[in-house]
Design brief:
The complex is a heterodimer.
Chain A (H helix, E strand, L loop, with lengths): L9 E6 L3 H10 L8 E6 L7 H9 L4 E6 L10 H18 L7 E5 L5 H18 L11
Parallel strand pairs in A: 1-2, 1-3, 3-4
Chain B lengths: L4 E6 L11 H9 L4 E7 L5 H14 L3 E6 L2 H14 L7 E5 L1 H5 L6 H20 L7 E4 L3 E5 L3 H12 L3 E5 L22 H14 L3 E4 L2 E9 L2 E8 L10 H10 L3 E3 L8 E3 L1 E2 L11 E2 L8 H6 L11 E7 L1 E4 L3 E3 L15 E3 H10 L5 E2 L2 E2 L2 E8 L14 H16 L4 E6 L9 H9 L3 E4 L7 E4 L4 E7 L5 E7 L1 E6 L1 E3 L3 H8 L26 E3 L9 H19 L3 E4 L4 E3 L9 H5 L5 E6 L2 E6 L19 E3 L4 H12 L7 H15 L5 H10 L3 E3 H8 L3 H13 L3 E6 L6 E5 L2
Parallel strand pairs in B: 1-2, 1-3, 3-4, 6-7, 6-16, 7-8, 16-29, 18-27, 21-22, 21-27, 22-23
Antiparallel strand pairs in B: 5-30, 9-10, 10-15, 11-12, 13-14, 17-28, 19-20, 24-25, 25-26, 31-34, 32-33, 35-37, 36-37
The chains are: A alpha/beta, B alpha/beta.
Chain lengths: 142, 732
């Protein structure tokens, strides 16, 4: 598939109480983003396992976006720190599998961050489009 | 693994089906392994559909259901209840969001929306296939509440909780109740005195036998969890005999020869070493300043009968089902030199100035200077783009303006200058701004980047300010007093309270609620609530509103004697766990403890304390921890479902045939449709007109007209004059 026609598939990990309502609001306001964006909602981004991220790449997702709560996290003031550790750990695993570290991103999305979410998806799609499909890059160990 | 799954895909009246081909999807999933029923329904949440779902589940003996409709934030509990009513464990239900996260954001690409919906629903089916039947965690709760902080918010909540039949332990750090408002004189908007409000509330607190008030008491240790908190409080001694004669006590207060600076009055006056914060302070028992009385041997000997210096700190254990923290706020204390504070004479904060006015009923004199002009600088210590406190305290604008109005009412010919960034007198408080403007107060707006510069002039304080509204022309204001309008900050002991109760603290250092709109008084610690200004700047009425809201929540929680908690908690696989302690290290709530099991040490999760955040799971190297309902199997099956290939029927070639079929389908209209068409006749009508003509409720007509519109029986044809309703006409 040529890079022009390539629509990257993005897996978003959101949080039940803060970022998922923000993503819902983008829909409520009929703000458009790529239909290749799929969302899994969790209690807190600090609970994401690196193996889930690797599983997503293995299954063909071109990018993983973590819509974190940032300082608004009601569970832990260290949420961003914990989530960052998970990303760093994932990037080490990604490197071992020849996956560009640019394929994972994190940003704080709050419950009214409809437009920022859409902007993030557009920017991330653009970055992933430049990188091309994951199938050309990965050498995932099953 | 679930083997009899029911799938329901909602049209949402067209909100979904206008963009997602729900009929095709329902047919597609019928072919899916383990899916027994797959239906598209007009409104999944409608009572009639809920009943039909219950029947389907019972008749087909379904063991799990998936509803693809709107966001789970709206109807998760609706369908969990449907599952319960039909005899399925609610954890064997999965809601798939194909409206807010599919049909609406992708309404520009209907085919892609349908493909995405297929992936989402398949992922939901995968997830529910691996779902476990989990029971809610039932906890016995004690019907007693610990309220921390006896300010206005805490006292109001305590009164309501007691009135509703709960035992209340009201714990106040100070020796007297009332918090900040006891320090205030007249309060906006009512003009009531803070002391009067406190006296009234204290009388009400005293009238309830089920409220126990502890003053001079601090929280020492907290153990337990929802339903059964065990809290140790430390009570400081008063050094007054419990049976002291009230007359002698009063005489001792009058005779006391030792005076010290009165902190309660910001040091503007002296107080005795046996004192109350103010004459009417509650409770009506004075406090002894032991340090100050150290050398007053003669006085101590004279009144020996009322003192007891053998008294020591006492620790008391309280047992409560729930906790309300309403510890209030501190006023921002400017740094030395900030706008001349403590370096230029006659520069004070707003609370200090209010107290000064209260102590100067006839004439405003400070540092031997009769005050003829007062300048206010707003937003001191708040809204700092580069500082610590980025937030706005909101109430300070109104408070300063109200002070300025009193300044004009109490004293004659005082000029007031207000150097502000923005005036935020929201709601009814705007009336005060208007009154202040009309009385001749001068308002000068400054830019945050160029704040006023304060210096001591020859006769008065000189303030240079660039007027933002006149192209930043520099003005020089001379004032006899400068009042720094300081905002609210979190109490200096809030970190301590946070550590005791494990309440998360935000960047602003105030306590964090779960969600500012949806769960504004709940914290992630089950059973611990926050009310008043300890969670962020609030005025008195907002503080009371939030604490009463928390009181209502707590009462609802405790009144049944038991509470049922979602089973979303961490679980330890004992075989995999090797106890490295990492999980306990990252757990903010001390929910994980090391225990001995057979010949090894493993981690154990306290179900009542665990919040299900999942922070412990990724740090576990042997992968021994999972969160119920967020297991590896469930999450990975979701990912698999998203990525599975979907093939849709090519609608292009079928469109003509389908249109004909659509018309054929509509030959058998329901009677209601016939009535609506008869009402419209050959013309056009809006919904209220149709409803009135056929004497049917507007909601029912709306439902049917929407459906008729979807099936191309009627179509919209312009709007009425007020643009409130569409007209509909028959579609040929």
């Amino acid at each position: 598939m040529s890079k022009e026609n390539f629509i990257p598939k993005i897996l978003v990990f959101s949080t039940d109480k803060i970022s998922d309502p923000g993503i819902d609001q983008a829909g409520l306001r009929k703000l458009h983003y790529s239909p290749a964006v799929y969302v899994i909602s969790l209690p807190c981004s600090s609970g994401i396992k690196a193996r889930w991220i690797m599983h997503a790449f293995q299954q063909g997702f071109d990018g993983v976006f973590i819509a974190a709560d940032g300082h608004e996290c009601s569970f832990s003031p260290k949420c961003a720190e914990h989530t960052n550790t998970i990303i760093v750990e994932s990037q080490v695993m990604m490197k071992e599998n020849n996956i560009s570290p640019k394929r994972i991103r994190m940003a704080a999305i709050c419950s009214v961050c409809a437009e920022p979410f859409v902007n993030h998806m557009e920017n991330f799609s653009r970055i992933l489009s430049e990188l091309g499909s994951i199938s050309a890059e990965k050498s995932l160990v099953p | 693994m679930k083997e009899k799954i029911g799938v329901y895909i909602c049209h949402c009246g067209g909100n979904i089906s206008d963009y997602v081909d729900v009929e095709e999807l329902s047919k597609m999933f019928l072919a899916e392994e383990n899916v027994i029923i797959s239906k598209d329904v007009m409104f999944a949440c409608a009572d009639s559909n809920q009943k039909a779902m219950v029947n389907d589940i019972k008749e087909n003996n379904l063991d799990a259901i998936v509803v693809a409709s709107c966001s789970p934030k709206l109807h998760l509990h609706t369908f969990k209840n449907v599952a319960s009513r039909a005899g399925i464990n609610p954890t064997n239900y999965v809601q798939v969001n194909i409206r807010e996260q599919c049909s609406w954001p992708h309404s520009d690409k209907p085919k892609d929306a349908t493909l995405k919906a297929a992936g989402l629903i398949r992922a939901g089916i995968n997830r529910v296939s691996h779902s476990e039947s989990l029971d809610n965690i039932e906890i016995q709760v004690k019907r007693a509440v610990l309220v921390v902080g006896a300010g206005v918010a805490g006292m109001k909540a305590a009164i309501d909780l007691a009135r509703l039949g709960n035992d209340v332990y009201l714990v106040e750090k100070d020796y007297f109740v009332g918090g900040r408002i006891a320090q205030s004189e007249k309060l906006f908007m009512s003009g009531q005195k803070g002391k009067d409000i406190i006296a009234k509330l204290f009388a009400e607190v005293k009238s309830y036998a089920n409220i126990t008030l502890f003053t001079g008491a601090t929280i020492e240790k907290v153990t337990g969890s929802l339903g059964n908190f065990h809290v140790d409080i430390n009570i400081k001694p008063l050094y007054i005999q419990s049976n002291a004669n009230p007359t002698t006590l009063k005489a001792a207060m009058n005779d006391c020869p030792i005076t010290v600076d009165d902190e309660f009055s910001f040091g503007f006056k002296k107080r005795k070493a046996i004192y109350k914060n103010y004459d009417e302070a509650c409770p009506d028992v004075p406090v002894v300043d032991v340090e100050a009385l150290r050398d007053a041997d003669e006085f101590l000997a004279k009144y020996a009968s009322i003192f007891d210096f053998t008294q020591q700190d006492a620790v008391l254990s309280l047992h409560a089902g729930s906790v309300l923290v309403s510890t209030g706020f501190d006023s921002y204390q400017p740094k030395e030199g900030e706008y001349g504070y403590k370096t230029v004479p006659n520069v004070v904060t707003l609370p200090e100035f209010n107290k000064l006015m209260a102590l100067s009923p006839d004439k405003l004199v400070f540092n031997n200077k009769t005050i003829k002009s007062v300048a206010f600088i707003y937003c001191v210590g708040n809204r700092q783009a580069k500082g610590e406190n980025k937030y706005c305290s909101r109430q300070c604008c109104t408070s300063a303006i109200y002070t300025s109005i009193q300044l004009n009412e109490n004293y004659k010919n005082i000029t007031a200058y207000h150097l502000f960034r923005d005036i935020r007198t929201y709601g009814k408080q705007e009336i005060l701004y208007e009154k202040s403007s009309k009385q001749g107060d001068i308002y000068i707006r400054y830019d945050e980047k160029e704040p006023p510069v304060v210096a001591q002039g020859a006769k008065a304080i000189q303030i240079k300010v660039k007027d933002f509204l006149t192209s930043k022309k520099e003005l020089e204001v001379e004032a006899d007093m400068l009042v720094l309008v300081t905002g609210m900050v979190a109490r200096d002991d809030s970190k301590l309270i946070s550590e005791k109760f494990k309440i998360p603290i935000g960047n602003d250092k105030f306590f964090n609620e779960i969600h500012p709109k949806l769960k504004p008084v709940e914290t992630v610690i089950k059973g611990v609530y926050i009310g008043g200004a300890c969670q962020g700047p609030k005025n008195i009425s907002e503080s009371v509103q939030s604490s009463l809201s928390a009181a209502a929540k707590i009462n609802a929680l405790l009144k049944g004697g038991t509470v049922s908690l979602d089973p979303i908690i961490a679980r330890v696989n004992n075989d995999l766990c090797v106890w490295c302690g990492k999980c306990a290290e990252v757990c903010e709530y001390t929910a994980i403890k090391e225990v001995e099991e057979g010949d090894k040490h493993i981690a154990r999760v306290n179900e009542a304390i665990c919040t299900g955040c999942g922070i412990c799971a990724p740090v576990c190297k042997p992968n021994a921890i999972e969160i119920a309902q967020y297991t590896d199997m469930e999450i990975e099956s979701l990912i698999d479902g998203f990525m599975q290939e979907v093939t849709l029927t090519d609608k292009e070639t079928e469109s003509h045939e389908e249109a004909e079929n659509e018309t054929l389908k509509m030959k058998e209209f329901p009677q209601m449709w016939k009535n609506i068409l008869q009402s419209i006749d050959g013309g056009k009508k809006n919904i209220p007109q149709i409803a009135e003509e056929i004497s049917v409720d507007t909601d029912i007509v709306t439902y049917h007209v929407m459906t008729m519109n979807k099936y191309n029986v009627v179509m919209a044809d312009g709007m009425d004059e007020k643009e409130a309703y569409y007209f509909y006409k028959r579609k040929n």
